[in-house]
Amino acid sequence: MAVAHLILQLISMAGNGVGACRVQIIPATIFLQLLFRALGADGASSFSFTNSCQYPVWVGVLHGASSPALARSGFYLAPSGTYHLAAPSSGTWSGTFWARTGCAVDSSTGRFTCATADCGSGDVACNGRGPSPPVTLAEITLAAPGSSGQDFYDVSLVDGFNVPVRLAPSSSGGGGGDCHAVSCAGDVNAACPSDLRVVSGAGEVVACRSACDAYRSARYCCTGAYGSPAACGPTDYSQVFKAACPAAYSYAYDDASSTFTCFGASSYDVTFCPRS
């Protein structure tokens, strides 16, 4: 029935009328959207992770409040290392991925801690805990498999920056919607204003705080009187982030240029320290 309905839609778009023989070229994006909706495209089945950094990272995974936990909530990823996680097989899913750096076990306490983006669990697994800013976030909401809904995804610097990241949908059969990769590959730490820098004991800038995290003001956090898109626009600080990573969220209401959609993707690839 769904395929028959699709054919009827295509016929109606091609034109009608007695004795008429009119052909209208249907844009490929419209055709794919109709096809996926008719057939009920399967949702993404997996997430893949690649560490292209020259240093190890410890990936953090946090599921949304109404979403099931994935098989791992944290894991080690060596330079050039890869890892795969299965996505839930039913229902919508939302969650966040990030990289922790400078991690080690404290010899005096036995707790696992990280220099940036620590989730505070005391372990490699984050166990339902989110990261401490500053942190670069890869955020995604998957539509339920077969629902014909769109996935939404982004890279966010709203909570600051620690590691470059790229988030890209992948599909063996093609996808609908924009389905573009979104990346923050720029070195935000190199451009970080002096009052937002997080500096290691060796004097290296290892992360860049957001102005909200540094100053806790309503203007920078888009709260209180600034709690709407009309009232909260970009600031000098957020524009530093936007200049380095134009496709990433630079402040809370930076939706227009920073939210991406796709349907029909079979997987999503997360790359830390991407080349572009």
From TrEMBL:
Q: Where are the transmembrane segments?
A: none
Give the signal sequence positions: 1-20
Write down the Pfam families for this protein, in alphabetical order. Thaumatin
Q: Which PROSITE patterns match?
A: THAUMATIN_1, THAUMATIN_2
Q: Which cysteines are joined by disulfide bonds?
A: 53-273, 103-114, 119-126, 179-262, 184-245, 192-208, 212-221, 222-232
Q: Which UniProt keywords apply?
A: Disulfide bond, Signal
UniProt superkingdom: Eukaryota
What is the protein named? Thaumatin-like protein
Supply the source organism for this entry. Answer: Oryza glaberrima
The organism that produces this protein has a lineage beginning with: Eukaryota, Viridiplantae, Streptophyta, Embryophyta, Tracheophyta
Tell me what gene encodes this.
Answer: LOC127771108
